[in-house]
Amino acid sequence: MLKHNSYFEGAVQSVGFERNGLPASVGVILPGQYHFGTAKAERMTVTSGLLQADIAGSGWVSYPAGTSFEVAANSGFDVRAVGGPAAYLCEYLGA
Amino acid sequence: MLKHNSYFEGAVQSVGFERNGLPASVGVILPGQYHFGTAKAERMTVTSGLLQADIAGSGWVSYPAGTSFEVAANSGFDVRAVGGPAAYLCEYLGA
Lengths: 95, 95
What we know:
The structure is a homodimer.
Chain A: E1 3-7, E2 12-19, E3 22-29, E4 32-38, E5 42-48, E6 50-55, E7 60-64, E8 68-71, E9 75-81, E10 86-92
Antiparallel strand pairs in A: 1-2, 2-3, 3-10, 4-9, 5-8, 5-10, 6-7, 6-9
C-alpha cells in the first residue's frame, strides 16, 4: 500500500512504500530549509535538483542529483533545496 | 507548489513539481500493470526497483533502477512493477 505524506504545510511531500520489508519513500522538497528527526537510520538519495544537508550539526554539504547521504538513528538533519524543488528517495536502513 | 496525484485506485501515486519551467513528478508504482497516455513527451527514470515497459506497443523491455526510457508525445505506454513497488522520476520534455 502507498501512503501520501505532507510536511511543513505541504512544502515537503512524499509517497511512502515498502521494499523487502523496509520502508522507503520518494518525495519533493520546495526551496526552503527544514529539520527532520530520524528514529531509524536512513539514506537520502537526491534524484533531481540540489539538496544541502547539515547532518547532526556537522556543517552544510551539497548533494546534487545522483548523490546520497546517510543519517544515523535517533539523530536528525537540516536540509534545504537550492535553486528550485529537489526530489529524493529516502530508504530506511533498519526495520 | 507540490501536487499529490493518485491513479488506479491509489496503486500509482506521485508528487508533482516544476523545475526550470517544466513539470516533473516522483512516484511509486505497486506491482501490477498500468497504461498511461502521454500528451507530452516524457522521460521515466527508475529510482528504485524494476519496471518493465511496453512503449507504444513495441514490446516489453526491463528497466532496473538507474535506467530510463522516453515516450513520445501523443502516445502511451504500458508499465508494470515487478517483484515489489518501483519508484520513478518522470520528467516532461516539453512545456
